Amino acid sequence: MTTIHAQVPDPLAKQVEELAAQEKVSVDQIVSIALAYQVSAWRTRDTVATRAERGSWEKFDVVMAKVRDIPPLPGDEK
Known about the structure:
Largest sheet: none
Radius of gyration: 23 Å
Low-confidence stretches: none
Structural class: mainly alpha
């Protein structure tokens, strides 16, 4: 496991300490979970952006033109 030293604003550090105490886990666990969550969010954003670049409004319109023009089923009106 790698140790990372980071400077954190005092108010944020206090919130992390309080959360760790509340959840009965270590500050290290809170920071690791938060870091993993944020890295995952950034990677997901990048993946979606990359896939969006491959998209085409023209192809979208072709597919949507194939959708039948009928009223929605009862309960699906909204």
